[in-house]
Amino acid sequence: MKKSAWKVLSATLALGASLIVGGCGGSNTAKRPKDEIVYVNFRDTRDLNPHLFAGEMYAQKLLYDTLITINPDGTYAHSLATSWEISPDGLTYTFKIREGVKFTDGEVCDAQAILANFNALNGFKERYKWTFLQVLDHFEVPDNNTFVIKLKEPRGAMMTELGVLRPFAMCSPKVMKNGLTKDGVTEYIGTGPYKLVEHVTDEYAVFERNEDYWGEKPAIRKITVKVIPDNQTRLLALEKGEIDLIFGKNMIDGDAVKKFSNMKGYKTALSSPASTRELVLNTTNSILNDLNVRRALNYATDRQSISDNIFYGFEPPAETLFAKNVPYANIDVMEYKYNADTAGQLLEQAGWTMGADGVREKNGQKLSLNLLYNVDSVMEKTISEYLQAEYAKFGVKLMLEPRLLIADEPTTALDALTQFEVLKAFRQVKESGTAMVFITHDLGVANYISDRILVMNKGHIVDTGTFREIVEGAKDSYTQLLIEKKTAVMRRYEAVMQGGEAHA
Fold first, then answer.
1. At 302, is the secondary structure helix, strand, or coil?
2. How far apart are CA 339 and CA 456, in angstroms?
3. Among 156, 184, 234, 277, which one is least packed by beta carbons within 10 Å?
4. Which long-range contacts does 226-233 make (Cβ < 8 Å, 24+ apart)?
5. % of the chain beyond a pLDDT of 70
């Protein structure tokens, strides 16, 4: 029986905010200059192309500026633009560009550079269907200090979109590839308060203050971002003084925040609500396509308890799709307050009766669901385990599975039989619906386990496709070498087998 995966939008949990914990008690901290800070993240900074969404936003914010910025109260402030005018019909936006601003590679950031960035974005506007590019008429540059955007129709969210870091941050035109950024950039060069000076993938990144920054100079001269995937290791590093700051919605759990709040030498803070935590349901599944089942799960989800017991009140419950303190979401819609009796009654109405093992059944089928979650998120794991225990009270068996599994050479140094058993286990994981990145040097293994193969050489993707496409159309010499080695092994194997049969 195929288990369900939770994929389509459904029940809302609690509004997420970013937790900040900083320490100054460790021995290593005392040795660091006061104008240096070591920050931690659970993953690499990744691709910092400002026009794409793959990289870490905090790192992009250090490197790049936008035309305008958005104040905490929702008003707009100057950035690369010192002033702006909006025509009465809402179709023309005229920006005066700040004079004397340079990118960290020395290039001047004038209206022509701004135009190059917007042209690059407009070159793949299909990626940005939510932006004003879909109603753009054209751009104009009357002079080097004036940039004009003309629209085909008015757009109420125009200024907000321009103030959002991604994708409307500005990079040096020199780093673009053929005047575009859709295929990446050659360097991460912006006009922001910092510049990237060193980066070792999955280990650390170093940012140093841009001494020629047009705005107020940051007090911190050097920021080092360490990659520490494990939560407990992060907390230990903070206590030992190896890092100074833990920041992020999913970087630290409520217990740790509570602990450090009461410890001398540490400070904790909470940002304004930034997002909503949600459960998502696959309504095409035979279990979850029943409205009564979906309503039952809503009533069985005690959002207030999650807020109180997991977040210690740091994150308030969101009873609808968005919490009411989210802009434009303060509307009166039906709220699903926790109600155990109603949840049970709805499951009964849907025909799910309690089995002897405590799991509900219907027509010989168990009420069993898979919950996929981000294994890198401390809070998602905690919430998932909580829901597993809570839903069990209602006869719902919740299986916890990660959204993504990364396997790095799991079959290396194994004998053939053990290797085969390991690969079978990975195939089962794959078939359960969990996405998987499988890293191997063995093309035969890649063929067995993979839907699509990417060949990397010196950190760059040099070939991609199915196994057959790779074998028949390899473009890179490294890929061709891998194929030749695999072919040679198979030929030796065949020769041995044929020789053995002749000898017998």
1. coil
2. 53
3. 156
4. 226/38, 226/39, 226/40, 226/41, 227/40, 227/41, 227/42, 227/43, 227/44, 227/202, 227/203, 228/40, 228/41, 228/42, 229/42, 229/43, 229/376, 231/256, 231/378
5. 83
Domain identity same for 259 and 334: no
Contacts of 372 (CB under 8 A, 6+ apart): 5, 6, 401, 402, 403, 433, 434
Residue 181 lies in a domain: no
Q: Identify the sign of the CA torsion 403, 437, 227, 460.
A: negative
Alpha-carbon gap, residue 63 to 475, rounded angstroms: 35
How many domains does the structure of the chain reveal?
4
What amino acid is encoded at 117 in this protein?
A: N
Same domain, 342 and 377: yes
Q: Is residue 233 part of a domain?
A: yes
Question: What CATH number did the domain enclosing 195 receive?
Answer: 3.40.190.10
H/E segment holding residue 373: strand 368-373
The last residue of one of the domains, among 344, 365, 400, is 400
Closest-CA residue to 468 (of 455, 452, 482): 452
Distance CA 163, CA 166 (A): 9
What would the pLDDT profile of 111-153 be if each residue is shown by its tens digit?
A: 999 999 999 999 988 888 889 999 999 999 999 999 999 999 9
Residue 239: half-sphere exposure toward Cβ, Cα within 13 Å: 12
Identify the domain boundary among 381, 400, 419: 400
Residue 116: give the domain boundaries. Answer: 61-176
Q: Are residues 384 and 343 in the same domain?
A: yes
Look up residue 340 and give its two tokens: 């155990």
Q: Which tens digits make up the pLDDT trace of 172-204?
A: 999 999 999 998 999 999 999 999 999 999 999
154 and 74 in a common domain: yes
Confirm if 26 and 241 have CB atoms less than 8 A apart: yes
- DSSP labels for 438-474? EE-S-HHHHHHH-SSEEEEETTEEEEEE-HHHHHHH-
Residue 182 lies in a domain: no
